[in-house]
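Workshop exercise sheet. Pairs work together: one partner reads the sequence aloud, the other fills in the structure field after running the prediction. Swap roles for the next sheet.
Pair: D.N. / O.F.
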Amino acid sequence: MRKIKRSKRLVPLLLSVSFIVFGAWFAGTNAYTFLKGYLLYKTGQVNAEDYTTKPESKEKEQEKEQEEVPLYAERPEKGENIGELIIPKLEAKLPIFHGTHEDELDKGVGHFAGSVLPGEEDNTVLSGHRDTVFRQMGEVGIGDLLVVQTSAGEFTYKVKKVRIVDKEDRTVIVPKPRATLTVSTCYPFNFIGASPERYILVADLIASNKE
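Structure field:
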């Protein structure tokens, strides 16, 4: 009977000693560090995808950065030659000057200073005299190409609309939702004196070859 009682007391004692020995060993080895780190990792774990930039996102960021870089580092001065207008149908290559005063129009095609530069988003407006640089402009119509070469690159536009408007019509220079080239000259072409109307070509940008 006493032996049974002693063995019952001995079992808890052995278990206590075992736990103490195990605890001392566990605390003195890397097992404790490993377990602690594992528990911290599991309780604080997040979805790695939330902190990893997806390839598509990187590409979009790069595209956005490229879009934010301006085509032209500097804006031109009045009277400055900013490029050339090529009209394939007429086999013509005409110089473009910044401004639409007589000083610019006497030398070539004038770029309306209040409009964006060629290749930029919005409405680029060019003008020229009907009896000099644009004397054959009436032969250019829907579907024809207009190419502008500047320091920023080569920009190809395709005529989508031909308009004949009053000379006071200001809708010619209104902003556009996309890159557009508007070319204006006096009309009728054979009119003697100050022409009462304007011949307008409206073209969409279809290709860019940026420098």
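Discussion prompt: Residues 2-68 form one domain. What would you look at next?
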